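Batch manifest, entry 17 of 40.
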Amino acid sequence: MKRLVGMHDKDEREAMRPGIEARHRHYGLDPRIGKDQMAGSFVGRLAMSGEITQQQYEAAVRYCEVYQEMQATVGGPKPSGAVNLNATRGMPAPENVERSKKALADWRAAVAAVQERQNEVRAGGALIAALDYCVLRDESHTHMIGWMREGLNALARHFKIGDKRKAA
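Output type: C-alpha cells
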C-alpha cells in the first residue's frame, strides 16, 4: 500500500538515493522530481521543464525505438548501458528477414521525414544532427534545441502522434 501512495521502504530509498542526489547535484533537479524516469535523459528534462511538448517527447522516444531496432537489425553497436555479467553467448538466433526489412524501412522513412523538413528550412538548421546528438546520443547541446524541436515536429507528424496542428 505504501508504494501506491508514493512511499518506498528503506532499502528502496537507499538504492535510489545516489541517483537522485546525482541528478540534483548535476542538473539542479528537485529531489522529488529527480525520481522521475524522464529526468534521466536530456530530452526528458526538456519535457519536464516545458521546453518541448509531450508530443515532441513521444516522437523522441519513438525515434529512439526505431533507431535501436534498426541497429539490432544491421548488427550495429549496442547502446551504452549496464554490463550484464550473467549474459551468455551462444548461437545467434536465425535472422528474421521480414522484421529486418520492416526495421530498415521504418528507419529510412523516419530519416526521410526529417530530411524533408530539413529541405524546407534549407540552411536554417541542422535537424538530423540535433536529433543525433540530443536524442540518440543523449548529449546536452542547448544551442540545438530549436533544431531538435523542428526535427521532433517532423517526426511527430510522421509517426502520427497527437494533434497535427499542435505538432506543426
